[in-house]
Amino acid sequence: MRSKALRTVAAGGVATVLALGVACGNSNPAPAASPTSTATATADRGVPLYPGATQTRHTGSTTLLSTDDSVKQVGDFYADALSRDGWKTISKYVGDYSANIVARRGHDGVTVQVTPLGSHTAISVSTYPTG
User: Fold this and answer.
1) pTM to 2 decimals?
2) What is the pLDDT of residues 94-126, one digit of tens each?
3) Long-range residue pairs from 14-22, CB within 8 A, at least 24 positions apart, any chain
4) Which domains does the chain possess?
């Protein structure tokens, strides 16, 4: 039951972040990062950004990305990359239609949310201090 509730909360969080990004945006889209620069970039606190993804927005400690790869591919990438980089997984769900990963390393936290968005896959990477 807790897993279902977590997935529901995660899906709602992604929808909220995406809706706010659209609602708060202006009519001039932010310049997209080139796939080459994004592939080696990291979000705040050393979290890798998905290789080849286009950065659509960065506000505060949240980076929004878009890719043509599947939700599952992106979720699997983050599950592996965070573990490899020393992040402790607090919760993880990776499926065909949504992915949500919460991890912690030292006093840093990260939440990665992945959902389909039209013909693309939307990625939200949020970092924060944990104490």
Assistant:
1) 0.71
2) 999 999 999 999 999 999 999 999 999 999 999
3) 14/98, 14/100, 14/113, 14/114, 14/115, 14/122, 14/124, 15/115, 17/62, 17/64, 17/113, 17/124, 17/126, 18/64, 18/115, 18/117, 18/122, 18/124, 21/56, 21/57, 21/59, 21/64
4) 2-25+38-129 (3.30.310)
